[in-house]
Design goal:
This protein is an alpha+beta fold. The protein is built from four helices and five strands. Strand 2 and strand 3 (132-140) form a beta hairpin.
Length: 189
């Protein structure tokens, strides 16, 4: 008969695989730490380059703003104010002259149904964002024809959103329904 006797104070354990696995995990973690440190350093260098580029651009913007302020001050002097006013007037006239009436009517004709007529078109206004606004009065014997025309205007790439101002029903002197509308026109200035 065999009796197992353990004479040691602690039983034998197989710890070697656990130590090897722990060492392998530690090596992998050190490699990941190195990768993360290199990524952080690269990002820092890129951020520094971006910061320098922003500082350079802001310095250029400040110098341009200072030069613009100097030129504005020069133009606002009493001796130059008359020339500035005259140049602004001429620029406004040139901008208004650049709008082609022939092109406006040709583009309107491309979207206008046969039973709608343009009664009047006011001088096109130019907004601060260089958009041309057409203010016009259109008329038709049937209001559905005008609604179809307005839908065609909105769907056309040449015209933008429409704003309706007023409408007049037919009278004894005028057999047409009249609608006053404002529309953005996409003519390049």
């Amino acid at each position: 008969m065999r009796i197992p006797i353990n004479l040691s104070s602690e039983p034998f354990r197989k710890d070697r695989p656990m130590f090897l696995a722990s060492a392998a995990c530690a090596i992998v973690l050190v490699v990941f730490l190195g990768i993360m440190i290199s990524l952080i350093l690269n990002e820092r260098a890129r951020a520094k380059d971006a910061r320098l580029a922003v500082e350079k651009l802001s310095a250029q913007a400040q110098s341009a703003a200072a030069e613009q302020a100097k030129l504005d001050a020069f133009l606002r002097e009493p001796t130059n104010a008359q020339v500035l006013a005259q140049s602004q007037l001429l620029n406004t006239l040139i901008q208004r002259k650049s709008i082609s009436w022939t092109r406006i009517f040709a583009d309107l004709e491309s979207v206008m149904p046969y039973d709608v007529e343009v009664i009047s078109v006011r001088l096109p206004a130019i907004t601060s964002s260089n958009e041309v606004m057409l203010d016009m009065v259109v008329g038709a014997k049937d209001p559905t024809a005008v609604i179809g025309f307005l839908k065609k205007l909105e769907e056309s790439p040449l015209f933008g959103p429409i704003e309706g101002h007023s409408s007049l029903p037919p009278s004894q002197n005028d057999p047409l329904y009249r609608y006053r509308v404002t529309v953005n026109y996409a003519q390049k200035l």
